[in-house]
Design brief:
With 445 residues, the protein is of the alpha+beta class. 24% of the residues lie in helices and 28% in strands.
């Protein structure tokens, strides 16, 4: 199933809608999409000045996404975790194919202005690709890396790029740059979500010597299909809607940003890395795919990170039930559900959680009688079970996420809230309960 077939399935299931009016890429696409955030996937059929339609919202609803993997939303984290584990247990290597659909049309000269790339937030520095799957090869070993980075269109064949500290692509680039060599990449747009899962797999779960595309293979149930590029030595995704063949230039920095990031704040304009486009190929009648920073990022990151945190922390402490990266915190707060067997164990779990995913700024521990997906229930536990003088942990001078404005280039503090009741449980912590009934047994007008 390719990206277009995914959209067709969602439409058949009543999970997709079309905007037929002409819509401007400058702010209007994002403004309309924002009204539907969290619901159905949106396809803009008539983009002003463009030939191709644009889809948005594939990741902002876990139920929609689950339907593409023939599972339920609550089982998605486990499904993704098993795929990641396949990296170390019988990985399915990608295969090269000829006659790739993604190379059906070759642009005579690369021209990014012919692709519907939206300017999303009102103070963004320009049009952005923000969900493309970037493939590169280790300059020393040739191992492929798959990742997602924001890319600002700055010219017909030029892009500005952000590479976070600690990302494997940055490691590749810095070693290539030390040799005064560019780092070749392919930028793949409009792919099956299995490839996106591979690209956002946390570095802690996918070591630098592993090819994350094997994660996509595991989710697809068959080898990921790649194609030989025309101008670079890095492969593209054969069934992508669009492939941009490019190179990250050594010793070149140009202004990039601002960009309305997942944190809900703008990443500031600074001199960052530069991508030179060498070729662009696409399918016949492609549908371009973009992402609205917000729920789409929170869901995608949460679904891959939650399972990794659970697997890591449950090996260290007993009683862990579930993990959720809360949307209201922009994924900077992990809410862990735990029934600790002894007092103090919840605090161990908090420390282990903060260590399992460096982007976290907070961790909140609650018992299993608290619904971790209900912010009101979590808040109630915070104010009725957390003693501030005993149950708040502060870890100063820690490294977090560069895009969190509370940090100074990622350097800041972390905190944890132990909102679990003491062991053994006192009757005063018993939550009010009511009789469980089935409304199907009642006549309701």
């Amino acid at each position: 199933m390719d990206f277009k077939q995914c959209l067709e399935k969602l439409e058949a299931d009543g999970r997709l809608l079309h905007i037929k009016n002409e819509v401007d890429l400058l702010y209007e696409v994002a403004g309309v999409a924002k009204k539907f955030e969290g619901g159905k996937v949106v396809v803009f059929d008539n983009i002003k000045g463009q030939k191709f339609p644009l889809a948005i919202g594939l990741w902002w609803n876990r139920e929609n996404l689950a339907s593409l993997f023939d599972t339920t939303a609550d089982k998605l984290p486990s499904l993704f975790a098993q795929a990641v584990k396949s990296l170390n247990n019988a990985p399915i290597a990608p295969v090269l194919i000829a006659g790739a659909p993604a190379q059906a049309v070759v642009m005579p000269e690369p021209d990014l202005t012919k692709i519907p790339v939206p300017t999303l937030a009102l103070k963004d520095g320009g049009p952005y690709f923000d969900n493309c799957v970037v493939i590169a090869k280790d300059p020393d070993t040739g191992v492929r890396n798959t990742s997602v980075h924001r890319l600002m269109v700055t010219g017909k064949n030029r892009l500005g790029l952000l590479m976070d500290v600690g990302r494997h692509l940055r490691d590749y680039y810095e070693r290539a740059e030390a040799k005064s060599q560019p780092l070749e990449i392919t930028i793949n747009n409009g792919v099956h979500p299995a490839y996106y899962v591979a690209a956002i797999t946390p570095s802690a779960a996918a070591p630098i010597d592993k090819d994350e595309l094997c994660v996509a293979s595991a989710l697809l149930g068959e080898p990921a299909r790649l194609c030989k590029s025309k101008t670079v030595e890095v492969e593209g995704i054969a069934e992508a809607q669009l492939i941009i063949e490019a190179e990250i230039l050594p010793a070149v920095r140009e202004p990039e940003g601002p960009f309305g990031e997942v944190s809900g704040y703008y990443a500031l304009r600074e001199d960052r890395w530069v991508v030179r486009v060498k070729a662009i190929t696409h399918r016949e009648n492609p549908i371009i795919h973009t992402l609205l920073p917000g729920r789409e990022v929170w869901n995608s990151m949460g679904l891959t990170v939650e399972a990794n945190i659970f697997d890591t922390v449950s090996k260290q402490v007993k009683g862990l039930k579930n993990v959720y990266l809360s949307h209201g915190s922009s994924n900077y707060n992990a809410i862990i559900q735990i029934d600790p067997p002894v007092n103090g164990m919840a605090k161990n779990a908090i420390l282990a959680t903060l260590g399992a995913f460096s982007y976290l700024q907070m961790c909140t521990a609650v018992n299993s009688d608290v619904d971790i997906f209900d912010p009101e229930d979590v808040e109630r536990a915070m104010v009725t079970r957390c003693r501030p003088d005993e149950d708040i942990i502060i870890i100063p001078k820690s490294f977090g996420h560069e895009l969190n404005p509370a940090n100074d280039n990622g350097y800041g503090a972390k905190m944890g809230f132990d909102c679990t009741y003491p062991v053994p449980k006192s009757p005063k912590f018993e939550k009010v309960a009511f009789m469980e009934v089935d409304l199907k047994n009642y006549e309701i007008e």
